[in-house]
Amino acid sequence: MKRMFFSVTDEYRERLEYGFAGVGCRYEQEHVKRPGGRRETEWIYPYYQWIMCRRGEGELLLRGRRYPVGEGQGMLLFPNEPHEYYARTDSWEVDWVVFSGAGIGGFVSRVIGAKCSGVYSVAVPFKISELIEKLYETATLGGPMKYAAASGIVYEILLEIYIGTSRSQGASLSARAERLRPVFAYIDEHYKEPVPLGVLSSKIGVTPQHLSIIFKSLTGVTVTEYINGVRVGRSKEILLSNREMRVKEVAAACGFSDVSYFCAVFRRFEGVTPTEFRERG
User: What does the pLDDT read at residue 124?
Assistant: First the structure.
């Protein structure tokens, strides 16, 4: 089944820092070839893409090398870079997002740390798949503000790619991420409330100090930074879809008790204030 949606290019969508040009979930992937030549049949793609294997196995041809792409692995493809991918099994089912927006390139290079296209192992792939399905549902069922609502989901997907991927293919990363699954789940459910470190550490039976160490080693950020990232992602959706809400109310709805702190954190993540973000969207 080809469950996919491509958005219409317009000025509003392109103004979003984190948007999408297309999304597909539980998608039966066909052979795609983009060698980047001059003829009409040889072309390159101008967007960042994330394509993650759900079932079966495929292969990516990139810079003259072949890379297998199996279950729990994803391809991060850069814009304007020649590539080709195809199934190696009878069925190759994938989830994918084509990203758009001014903030995508900076997030990929500065946060994820990727400099070119490649294949990544995903520690907890179900989380990214759930978010991609949520994005697909928002795209296909949403109203006029669906791109605004989708922006927050896209940011969550990028965060999960950052947190859950590694080129090392090592089992230790997957094991640590699996152990922290209750922590991520609790944050996702309770981000609107205070999230004490002691409560989070109790979810996996360690001390707060030990949780801080293993969380930073896995994600590259502190627990507080991760929680703030989740809250900022949610706040972007509210800012654009509920324009009558005051910034102070948006902050409270996303777990920030102090509006000044919210504005400072938002600016650190997005480069603009919440008000400026709303005006641009």
Answer: 75
